[in-house]
Write a structure and sequence with these properties.
The complex is a heterodimer of chains A (about 270) and B (about 90).
Chain A lengths: L2 E6 L7 H13 L5 E5 L7 H4 L10 H5 L5 H4 L1 E2 L6 E4 L12 H14 L2 E5 L6 H8 L3 E6 L3 H14 L4 H4 L5 E9 L1 H5 L6 H8 L3 E6 L3 H8 L3 H4 L4 H13 L15 H10 L1
Parallel strand pairs in A: 1-5, 1-6, 2-4, 2-5, 6-7, 7-8
Antiparallel strand pairs in A: 3-4
Helix pairs in contact in A: 1-13
Chain B lengths: L3 H4 L5 H37 L9 E7 L4 E7 L14
Antiparallel strand pairs in B: 1-2
Classes of the chains: A alpha/beta (about 270), B alpha+beta (about 90).
């Protein structure tokens, strides 16, 4: 049976979809079967970030409502053959998701895949609660910024009370992923440091993803950053995070894109 | 604002940290407190309701806290002349 992981944050725009795509691709790269599931019904974006927007025929709502079967709705990635996408619906709203329907879909995906990674919508409403409802573990994506940390704390409280796992009296494993981290600004006292965030949220750290220009380039061309920008600092950080998720002991470091003086001069000019 | 504040800007990260710590403490208390209030409200009303008819709208619950204790205040409006309806006397 596969591991079901929800990627969540409370706050929007912190990097949930980027993270879902990047970790999904990094895991699938090792040959295991991975499906990434978009729960952001009405505002789907994972298909865009994965570059599969023109290949969506059936979506999560169709499967939940029994209009299509799971295999019909799964979209296989063109670059990694063990990576699949289950898209959200763009035209319906989140009320079309039923708890029983989502339970059945997750159950089937769990049997078919080694990893089921659920991309949660922002907020704490129905879409977000259903995305986390049947998860075994959670990745909480947070920016080193006050509103993101506050929302993450709220989400952690929900993971401990509103999930099937919590209702059974078990404690859900949680992993903190700090994104858009800027070591230079932290050193200047302009940004919360990793220790500040860890101390306030008190859940184990999965990785630190540095602020990185390649993330935008990856979404522009529609490919997970761990596929198209493998040498970038963010991709390397995501690769490390994926290995930690698999239980490997990888030293925590913050990769950087630091260029030499010449690289910086010419890099600037080109950009 | 002194001349030096231009030379050396105030670091904002420690401010963020301080604000967040206070905020999270407050948020966490609120969420745990709301559960507690709901339970207390239900059970106290049920207990009083065994003896007199209570209008749920005529009940007020206050919740205060200081450093070490919480104070729960209950105002239950009972109409004058209400008769006991306890199971034992009814």
């Amino acid at each position: 049976m596969g591991r079901v992981i929800v990627v969540t944050s409370g706050k929007g725009g912190v990097g949930k979809t980027t993270t879902t795509a990047a970790l999904g691709a990094a895991l699938a790269w090792t040959g295991v079967n991975v499906v990434v599931v978009d729960f952001d019904v009405g505002l789907r974006n994972l298909d865009l970030v994965m570059g599969a927007e023109r290949r969506v025929v059936f979506d999560l709502i169709n499967v939940v409502q029994g209009v299509a079967k799971v295999p019909q709705a799964l979209i296989r990635d063109k670059r990694i053959e063990t990576l699949y996408l289950l898209a959200a619906s763009q035209t319906r709203d989140k009320d079309a998701l039923t708890e029983e329907g989502v339970a059945a879909v997750i159950w089937e995906l769990r049997a078919r895949f080694d990893w089921v990674i659920c991309d949660s919508p922002a907020g704490i409403e129905r879409g977000a609660t259903l995305a986390m409802r049947f998860a075994d573990e959670a990745i909480i994506v947070v920016n080193p910024e006050v509103s993101s940390v506050r929302d993450a704390d709220r989400i952690i409280g929900m993971l401990d009370s509103k999930t099937v796992m919590a209702e059974r009296g078990a404690r859900m494993a949680k992993h903190l992923l700090v994104t858009r981290f800027d070591a230079t600004r932290v050193a200047r006292g302009e940004m919360l440091g990793i220790h500040d965030v860890l101390e306030m949220l008190s859940i184990p750290l999965l990785g630190i993803i540095p602020e990185c220009e390649e993330v935008l380039r990856a979404s522009n061309i529609g490919a997970p950053i761990t596929i198209c920008g493998q040498q970038s600092a963010a991709a390397r950080a995501y690769m490390d995070a994926a290995r930690r998720l698999c239980g490997e002991d990888v030293a925590m470091s913050i990769p950087s894109d630091r260029k030499g003086l010449l690289g910086r001069l010419f890099g600037r000019r080109a950009a | 604002m002194s001349l030096f504040s231009f030379v050396r800007p105030i670091k904002s990260a420690p401010v963020a940290r301080k604000r967040l710590q206070a905020l999270l403490e407050h948020d966490r208390l609120l969420t745990s407190q709301s559960d507690l209030i709901r339970v207390l409200q239900t059970e106290v009303l049920a207990a009083v309701g065994r003896h007199v008819t209570v209008d749920p709208d005529k009940v007020q619950i206050r919740f205060d806290r200081n450093a070490t204790t919480w104070t729960l205040g209950l105002d239950i409006e009972i109409p004058q002349g209400a008769r006991a309806t306890a199971a034992g006397t009814a």
